[in-house]
Design goal:
Rossmann fold, 2 domains, 11 helices, globular, binds 2'-monophosphoadenosine-5'-diphosphate, amino-acid biosynthesis, Shikimate_DH-bd_N, NAD(P)-bd_dom_sf
Length: 277
């Protein structure tokens, strides 16, 4: 019997997750189908109940439900609890169990593209302190154990996230102005803010002049393919990484949770790039 999987979010019309997971089901000869469900905020609890009754095997959760879903689950495991956000749910014996594969997905994508940088345990500056920043910051703080600093428009949120990172590594909260002045001390700068999604916003976050040669600039957004932040870094000759590797590797980790099989992330990334972007 074909197992049911899916994605809950809104908007989700442009999501690449259904194409990605359905191709993996085909390639691994697992009988499953992944459907995108457009779920407005007020309908989340009802939809989760319906999917539970339908016997859905697993689903992903995306904007705006990653935090709101937590009270609707039976258990939250791994980093999802400390991050306060779930992106992957598995149903076993009628129990819905939530995980978060976003941060590890970012790390795996980074490892696939910049293995030498990962080996060097880079010091990292994270711009933003929202849900996406939390998942990436906490995983990198644990993996690198060096320095993960946080800068954010709302400084109090940077302080809060920096304190959480300090359990694992050195971490300071910086204002945008301090981050501009100190940018030369980082080997990697990651933009986790949503600013690149809004073409009418002033895209200038802060000056990146003064970054050390070969600093990697990353963004979690992949549509647009290059945010203004990455365009500027690329123009100045820095290596860049957009959000596509994270999308694919968080998906591969979710697929593995559901099926026990870890699919080929890099191959999927090339496919999505050439087919959809
Ligand atoms: P997500 O789950 O995608 O991280 P979020 O929790 O709403 O979404 O967080 C959005 C992040 O983008 C925050 O760090 C936010 O900064 P504030 O905490 O100050 O709101 C940041 N952000 C959004 N628009 C921004 C802008 N125009 N300039 C600077 N930062 C912005």
């Amino acid at each position: 019997m074909e197992e049911k999987y899916g994605l809950l979010g809104e908007p989700i019309e442009h999501s690449l997750s259904p194409a990605m997971h359905n191709l993996w089901f085909k390639e691994t000869v697992i009988s499953g189908h992944y459907t995108a469900y457009s779920v407005p905020k007020p309908n989340l609890a009802r939809t989760v109940d319906q999917l539970r009754t339908l016997g859905i095997k697993g689903f992903n959760v995306t904007f705006p439900h990653k935090t709101a879903i937590i009270p609707m689950l039976d258990e939250v495991r791994g980093t999802a609890g400390s991050i306060g956000a779930v992106n992957t749910v598995i149903q076993t014996d009628g129990q819905l169990i939530g995980y978060n594969t976003d941060g590890l997905g970012f790390y795996e994508g980074l490892r696939a593209h910049f293995p030498l940088l990962v080996k060097q345990q880079p010091s990292v500056l994270i711009i933003g302190a929202g849900g996406a920043a939390r998942s990436v910051a906490l995983v990198l703080a644990q993996k690198f154990e060096t320095r993960v600093d946080i800068t954010n428009r709302t400084f109090s949120k940077a302080v809060f996230l920096s304190e959480a990172c300090r359990r694992f590594c050195t971490s300071d909260a910086l204002t945008f102005q301090q981050a501009e002045e100190d940018i030369g001390r980082y080997q990697m700068v990651i933009n986790t803010t949503s600013i690149g999604l809004n073409p009418s916003a002033d895209q200038h976050l802060f000056r990146i002049d003064g970054a050390a040669p070969n600093t990697l600039f990353a963004d979690l957004i992949y549509q647009p393919y290059r945010t203004a932040f990455l365009q500027e870094a690329e123009r100045k000759g820095y290596p860049v990484m957009n959000g596509l590797p994270m999308l694919v590797f968080q998906g591969a980790l979710a697929f593995e949770r559901w099926t026990g099989i870890h699919p080929d992330g890099k191959k999927m990334e090339d496919y999505l790039l050439h087919t959809y972007l």
